[in-house]
Structures are given as C-alpha cells and as structure tokens.
Amino acid sequence: MNFNLTSEQKLIKQTAADFSRDELKEGAVNRDKNKIWPKEQVAKMANLGFMGMMVDESWGGSGLDTISYCIAMEEVSKVDASAGVIMSVNNSLVCYLLNKYGSEHIKTKYLISLAKGDKLGSFSLSEPQSGSDASNMKTYATLDGDNYILSGTKNWVTNGISCDYAIVFALTEKGVGHKGISCFLVEKSFDGFSTGKPEEKLGIRSSDTCELYFDGVKVPKENLIGSEGDGFKIALSTLDGGRIGIASQALGIAQAALEASIDYSKEREQFGKPISSNQGIQFKLADMAMEIEASRLLIYKAALAKDEGRDYGHIASMAKVYASEVAMRASTQCVQIHGGYGYVNETGVERLMRDAKITQIYEGTSEIQRVVIARELLK
Fold first, then answer.
1. Are 237 and 59 in contact (CB under 8 A)?
2. Residues spanned by CATH 2.40.110.10 within the chain?
3. What's the sign of the alpha-carbon dihedral 73, 75, 81, 86?
4. What is the reported pTM?
5. In angstroms, what CA-CA distances link 142 with 119, 149, 170, 231?
C-alpha cells in the first residue's frame, strides 16, 4: 500500500496551490461579502484544465484520476470554497455524468465545451417540495414528436444563474415512482427556460444558487441522457462521485482552518507568551490535524475505489459525512482560537465556518450519508 503521491499528482497539487494563492486569495473576502461570481478566476481554472479533470482527453478533458481531482479541489477550496463548489459541480455532477452516460451526440455537442471550461454546467434534481426524498418530483416531460415538452421548477441549483447548460431530472411516466424519472440536457437558451433570483446564503456566497423554471420548454429528444426511466439510477450514481468532490471541498476548508489557527496562535501573545504555548490550544490543534489527516485518507480511499471500478458509494458517504463534520469542527475551533478577531470578517476565518456548514447539507445531508452507510453494513 503506497500513500505517496505520484509525480503528476504532486505537480497538480503545486499548480492548484499556486493558482489559489496568486488568483483566488486576493479578493476572496470581497467576493464573499458582495456575492461576486468569480468569472475571471473560473476562466483561469479552465485554462489549467480544472473544469473537466476526469473526462477523457478525446472529449476535451484532462484525463486525470479522481485522486488528482481531489487534490486540486482541496487546494482551491482551502482558499475559496465558492470557487471550489463551482469547480466541483462542473466536474463531478455534469462532466462525469455526460462522460459516463451521454451519447456520442451529447458528448460531441456539449461535453467537449464543458470539459474545456468554455461552457458551464449545472445539476438540477431537488424541487421545492423534495429534498432528501429526491424521487418526489413534479417536473414533467412528455414526448411530442421530436421534442420533449418540459415543465416544472427546480431549486437549490448551484451555477444556476451562470450556467450555459443544465442537467435536469424529470418524470416521463407518472405513478411508477423513481422508475419514471428521466435525465435531460437542457440549454439555457431554450425558450421557456428561466432562472429565479439568487438565494441569500449563509456561506459560499460568491457562487450562485437559484431556482430554475421550465415553462413548456422544447427539449430535442436526442438530449435525453440514457433511456426513459434511467434518470434516478443516473442521479444516484453521479451523486456518489459528487460526494467525493464535496468531501474534498470540506477538507480544504478544514485545512485552511488549521493553518490559520497555527499561524495566529504563534503570533498572538497573552500573559507574556504566545498562546501556542498553552496546552489547551495545542490540544485543539492536535485534534484538528488528526481529524483532517483521517479525512484525507478516507477521501483518497473512496477516490481510488472509484477509479478501480469497485463499489464506492458507501465509502464516498463515509468520506463526505466525516470530512464535512471535521470542517465544521475545525472552522469553529479556528474562530475560537482567534477569539474576538475570529468573529469579525477582518481575519476571514469566520468565512470558513460559514462555508463549512453547507458541506453537511448539499449532495446528501449527513443524515442521508449515514443511511447509505448503514444500508451497506446491514445488507
């Protein structure tokens, strides 16, 4: 068992770290405060090949392994978790889905531009009346000649305002539960497709989240992904990989919290000595470091299982629930170590705590992850 990174993975780590330091760090607090979508930074991520990392090179991607993707996600999210989730959605939920399930027509027309980062994708499964119960949907698509007529509403859509294309799940047959769900690629330019206002969020504020509305949208039948009724299977399979991406986002947040805590504890003096000399602070740092390293190993285990074609859904759930809870604990302790300075946005560490919370919720709550894990244990 080899825990060492390959030379290529080390290069990706350094490239992502340099990019994050040089392009993301300055302005991250301002983008968060003013909810500014990082257009220039996303374009530069695309130039580095970070928007379609696991897609075959023949379809415009970088052709890298999942561990390389996790490494880049951690480094980006360590500096700006909003940029991290933009990158994660395009990689894990859009490009991965199209690379695995898309027809040659879909790949040629859409995947290449998405993997190169020339276009941006979104993934829309949830609806106002459904959250964890993803199969409880009302959005409906009926075949009419050469088009499906799509009507309904989706919510909590990351990249919804900024995207060019949306992956949309809709019923094509009613009364049969999840077996009636199908998957479509819908262009933003199609008549009847509109977006709601940006959601006012606690964290990841410079990424956009909104509702999507479909009012009799004509979707060419060749934009059906897979066959009718395959949608739920496609969604669950895609979310397994997506959870590895969000776990990596959480890991980046936690690592940033640890590094900020170490730096501040060495600089801040109380009672004539740095607070890092206090055992109470040292124990906090030690606990953070242990949990972060355990998260990283669990994430890499899930990524390796995915790349080797083994069942990895329950491991991905373990990685996501653990890393997200570690991110929440680490960022909370980071604020505590900074004291009053941690509670104001001057130091930027309060942003880590706000950003960490969503990793326990989206792409499957911590409670749902435990359901997945327990189901595997009890089968």
1. no
2. 122-229
3. negative
4. 0.97
5. 27, 5, 10, 15
Where does the pLDDT of residue 330 fall: very low under 50, low under 70, confident under 90, or very high at 90 and above? very high
Query: Could you say which architecture CATH assigns to the domain 7-119?
Result: Orthogonal Bundle (1.10)
363 counts as catalytic: yes
Please name the residues in contact with 378: beta carbons below 8 A apart, sequence gap of 6 or more: none
CA atoms within 13 A on the CB side of 128: 8
Annotated catalytic residue, options 75, 222, 363, 376: 363
154, 108 Cβ separation under 8 angstroms: no
CATH superfamily, domain 233-378, is Butyryl-CoA Dehydrogenase, subunit A, domain 3 (1.20.140.10)
Q: Would the pLDDT of 130 be above 90?
A: no
CA dist 245 and 66 (Å) reads: 9
For the structural domain made of 122-229, what CATH number should be given? 2.40.110.10
Which residues are CB-contacts of 255 (< 8 A; sequence separation ≥ 6)?
A: 74, 78, 292
